[in-house]
Records
---
Amino acid sequence: PLTLQVKNKAPAEVQITAEQLLREAKERELELLPPPPQQKITDVEELNDYKLRKRKTFEDNIRKNRTVISNWIKYAQWEESLKEIQRARSIYERALDVDYRNVTLWLKYAEMEMKNRQVNHARNIWDRAITTLPRVNQFWYKYTYMEEMLGNVAGSRQVFERWMEWQPEEQAWHSYINFELRYKEVDRAPLLVIVHPDVKNWIKYARFEEKHSYFAHARKVYERAVEFFGEEHMDEHLYVAFAKFEENQKEFERVRVIYKYALDRIPKQEAQNLFKNYTIFEKKFGDRRGIEDIIVSKRRFQYEEEVKANPHNYDAWFDYLRLVESDTDAETVREVYERAIANVPPIQEKRHWKRYIYLWINYALYEELEAKASKRTRQVYQACIELIPHKKFTFAKIWLLYAQFEIRQKNLPLARRALGTSIGKCPKNKLFKGYIELELQLREFDRCRKLYEKFLEFAPENCTSWIKFAELETILGDIDRARAIYELAIGQPRLDMPEVLWKSYIDFEIEQEEYEKTRNLYRRLLQRTQHVKVWISFAQFELSAGKEESLSRCRQIYEEANKAMRNCEEKEERVMLLESWRNFEEEFGTDSTKERIDKLMPEKIKKRRKLQAEDGSDAGWEEYYDYIFPEDTANQPNLKLLAMAKLWKKQQQESEAAEVDPDKDIDESQS
């Protein structure tokens, strides 16, 4: 086969893109074609021929695509323009057979009949349309408007009633209401709220009644709306409208009741507008008390929201209860207290109950002091005691407060029974102390002795209890019992504060002027501990004994202490002892004794030692002070070396001074 040879393969000078080709084609489409020549029809035959050709064109278009409704409408409108109403009806009917759901088709059909004043035909079409497509509101609007324009009010009302049976949207109901109002038929206005029970519709209904001066009916509408929505679906707009209605009627007390009722039940975040309107109302018509009530109500809402969000937030309950107690009646306060104490901590651990238990305490105190209801107070205490899991922990405060309450009620047996039960169920130091304090105030000393015995059986290591028991016997004048109690106490194998106990025992013997027994106590104590404070206290006791040999005894004790503490690792304690001894000698000693104690005083020197970190690595050096006692034989070589070093340093300083002085004399002579 022959192939064409391209001679010039260079690109053309003018390049044309596909976009340019398409744009050019589109532009040429818009070029105006010359209009067709006008035809003048002069006789009937030409007219019939024109109609035939035109109808054939329309029919061909319809036959090509039956579903294009615009072709049907153009065809019918062309027939209508020729006043061929029957043919136009036939075309519309044929089109409805094809697509009876087309809204435009029905509208054009009915408009054609109305334009040509075919009222009955138009009614027939509208009836068929609303029967076939009852949810198309446009048909109903057009139908009712046509009947009203024709003056057929009854027919229009009948159409509206048929429409309302389908429960259309709100605008349809408003159209019906406005229709009745136009003809002063107020009683015939329909109840929109039955089908659309929204808040705005209830408000419109009430305002409608108010506008026509049916104030009692308007109030009933608002009341029905409040009852209809209940407390589960409350809306602030309804109550604001209700309150403003009552305000217009000068019913100010009713307005306050409405606002307070709504504020007590609507959540705070949904009642901002309500608060605002209530505040404005009180500023206009209320007094200072009313404004304070608003503030209290607002705070109550805040606390309600807090406790709803977290019922175990006991601090919020405390604030809420404090607010309620200051402003409301006893029943409301009790209700809030019952709600608060119902939130029992979920975990039986004392740290979770510490805040909760104060709700019960405050409840009981409120019933006793504010409400003056002793019977309810007793019930509160008993319920609280039953609730606490005493096997795991208890609260001595509750038991003691209950007992004190019963005493205030002059019911001593119940108070003793409560404290006895507490000691039997869950003995605690605080309970024993409170019970003993009670019996002491009642001067029941035999009961106090029994309680101290039980207390010491429960906690024999408690030195304070032993001391208090002995002091009680001392006050009662039974010295032998007090001394026996002290002996039992110091004989216990384990004590929490033994030094306090021994000091109390020694002070007791000193008060009784039993100096020999006091010395024996000191000796017994020194067998257990060689603490420097014991020695100093022993020496001061001998000094205060006031006898002739007191100074020699005191000096002897200091000497014993010094000998005993030579092997003590804590050199600071030994220094403390020597300083106390020196003070004694400065006040009561002679020159020889003072010189002797000065020789015993240690020398303070600075030393360095190596530090180690926790991982064993070197952490550097630190300086510290050490004491060197002249009596320590182990340190004598060091002391001798130290003395020689000091002497050498002194000699060096003197020689340097001698060398400087001659030069100074020569300078003076030359000057």
Note: The chain has a mean pLDDT of 77.
---
Amino acid sequence: RRVLLLGEGNFSFAAALCGARATHVVATCYESEEEAAGRGGAARSIRRLRDSGAEVVFSVDCTKLKEHFSPGEREFDRIYFNFPHCGRKAGVVKNRQLLGRFFHSCAEVLAQEGEVHVALCNGQGGTPADQPRREWHNSWQIVAVAAGAGFILSHVHPFQAETIHGYKCTGYRSQDKSFSVEGALNHIFTRSTAPPCFTPVSCETQLGSQKVSFQVPQVLVDKMNRGFLEGNSSHPVRTIKEKLSAGLSQAFPVQHISSCLPLLHQGRPSGVCHSSLFWITLSPGEAPSTEEVPQALPNTVLFPHFGQDTDKNVQEGCPVPKQFYLRPSLLPHAQAIIKNKAFPPGTLQVLSGPVFRKCRITPHSMPVFHELLVVLAVSRGTEESCVQMLVDNIKTTVNSLHQGVSGAKPSISLQEATSFGTELNDFAAFEWQLGGIQHFLCVGTEPEPSGSCVGVIRTAPDELKSCELVVVSASLNLDLLAMLLCGISDWRMLWTWDRRFLSQFPEGELRLFKSFSLYPPSYVHDVSFWVPDGEEFDEVAFHTLARKVSGETVISIELRDNFQQPGTGRRSLCYRVTFQSCDRALSCWEAAEMQLRFREEIQQQLGVTLR
């Protein structure tokens, strides 16, 4: 392991490390050898380093590391910079600039899986780990500065000088004087994954008897065909799906629908807000004929609202307009099974896959998630007991999973749809539009013991012209369940490309998630504009454009002002947009560029007039 130490004052820290096994130490300082040797104890430490086989290099500028090491010597596994400072009475701005140039220099000599350790005095870093914490403008803002060079803060812990044998800090105001390191912190940075490259992506799917391709909406480019539910996946959503299915199989005969479910539906569903759907245009020349495409959302009892008056042309027997959208639910596929009479009563049909819904930006609102849908035909009069058996089984599995992860027992409740007291989350609100809901399934964990809706239960007479059967279905949001069970606070982390996420769940084992990106910086921008006269402002489209231009780095959008101009009646809106990434480095200039593109997009796509 190659270790590089920068800015050594008296080389006492380097001397303490030089005895470590399988470690090659390269200790450096900014001063010349003559200047450095004049510090108290430095000459003795330098001799010890050289005697142990370590390299000692002088006059090394930490902002130009590439110039000091040849290409074959640049792969350092760890870089230490203890208590960096510009010298004398330099203020916070100069020291931030020093850190910025230092991190950019580190990026050129650090191994891909390497670490950068920076020790700072109490309060300097500007993170919540500092106690007491300085005001942001008066700190070195180390996490934001490192983000500009592509680094994220992965660990922070006390700098325990007393445990480092022979260590003595020096260099107070560029003098051979010590300084207080009480409360000092060691910040450990690692490389971030690269920003996503959103090149246009085409996707192929089965539509009727024909395979068609379409261009994936930009906001979903990095979320298509991820294979989280595939057999070789160790992703938490697959683990939860498998555990739930195994639990259900102990109470019911289970049949898994393993055929490839179409990604696209056709038509214009009623009862569902059309701005919540991802509308798709097929690649030129690929739209199938009307006869080849069954209506994916017929007038069915499973969806009392979804598709009742799909289109006036359908009712009159006219050709259906070729309008397609990404599936927002797996319910239509369950209905197709019923229509094909491939639905043995008493057998639980299990379907799973990603579904797509436009929604507002919040940490728990996701434009794509994995749905687990179970459907069961039971004898009329037994539906309530079957619902209870189904829910009890799900409760038992979720309880077991959560206790295995955290040792605590979650609160799981079944709430009547008519008496659901708390505000619906986006998942529940969309399911409510589909209709037919009898119960909401809520799971509560600390710090939200009141519960979040993760599933819905429906009951309805079936389509088989039978007066004896009733269809019971349960739809579960596997992504929300994974977040609650594994302590994941932001849905975006489930879709990260950083391998450190899945490495925490070896062979599908569920564990409490530990973030590898601590205290990510956030950047706030406001945007205000005039709304076109006489038009209702589509806030979901506004949020979707923010997702698109930012690559999901907008964490919140808040309406700050709604102003109507006297006399003209013109309406102006002002929103506060907060940029923050949960898994990769995001710099202030990246956020500023995204804000500029966002302003251009809303002007072009929504027809607003910027202020």
Note: The longest helix spans residues 383-406.
